[in-house]
Amino acid sequence: MHESATGNRSERFLPCLRRPFTLAPASPVRRRCVAALCVTALVVLAACSDDTSPASSVESPAADSTTAGEDIAALPIIDQIDAAVAALEAQLGGPQEYFEINATARLVNLFVALNDGAVAQPWLYLAGSLTSAEGQPASGGTFAAASLTFDPAVVLSKVQLELPDLTIESFYIHGDGQGSVLYGVLATSSKGGGLDVVLGADGTVKSVDPVN
């Protein structure tokens, strides 16, 4: 697994819990798993990658980012998803297919579908820089950036209004495997426990499910 250190914290490639793609079983090499996106009961189970996996870093135009000292309740940086996609597609030479894109209050994770959807390569966009790790065999629904229709200014407005006791930890975008895009947030409740809230592109709350 590759980690990019910022200040006293390490940033990691983190797929969302409701993952629409499946990573193939890893080979018997020493490896570490990515885990624990949230600081409370919401646990994000993430993909494993070899300790020896090579990584690369690419600088892109500077973007605002939250700092280590910022309040943990800060919202995901949804407004940086477009910049992250633009930087990655410029680096790779054109439009890509994605298994997942997710944003936390600090960074954007992008999981690029390679080899006709047979491999998932993780990229991390943090403070205007891109970092990648080695891809892994995978399968599942994919989507192109051109299919994204959400408005970063409003997509969280209804969940904040209707579920004011939630702390939103991350915003995710998935391909549902049927040609559509799925939006949602992972959140923690003030009463304890985690919730997976599926949203429409306009922010409409479609479903709320507990995260076990």
Instruction: Give the number of helices.
Output: 2
* Helix and strand element order: EEEEEEHEEEEEEHEEEE
Strand content range: 35-45%
Count the domains: 2
The unreliable regions are: 1-10, 25-72
Give me the Rg, rounded: 16 Å
Q: How many β strands by DSSP? A: 16
**Termini gap:** 25 Å
* Biggest beta sheet attributes: 12 strands, antiparallel
What structural category do the secondary elements indicate?
A: mainly beta
Shape: globular
Q: What average pLDDT do the residues reach?
A: 75
The helix content is under 10%
Key features?
212 residues, mainly beta, SHC Adaptor Protein, 2 domains, two-stranded antiparallel sheet, 8% helix, globular
Polypeptide structure, described:
With 212 residues, this protein is mainly beta. The chain folds into 2 domains: 3-145, no CATH class; 147-211, SHC Adaptor Protein. The chain has helices spanning 81-92, 157-162; strands spanning 3-6, 9-12, 21-23, 31-33, 48-50, 55-59, 97-103, 108-114, 119-126, 129-133, 136-140, 143-144, 166-175, 181-189, 194-199, 205-211. The strands form 3 sheets. Strands 3, 6, 7, 8, 9, 10, 11, 12, 13, 14, 15 and 16 form a 12-stranded antiparallel sheet that branches. It is globular. The two termini are 25 Å apart.
Task: Summarize it.
By secondary structure, the chain is mainly beta. The protein has helices spanning 81-92, 157-162, and strands at residues 3-6, 9-12, 21-23, 31-33, 48-50, 55-59, 97-103, 108-114, 119-126, 129-133, 136-140, 143-144, 166-175, 181-189, 194-199, 205-211. It has two helices and 16 strands.
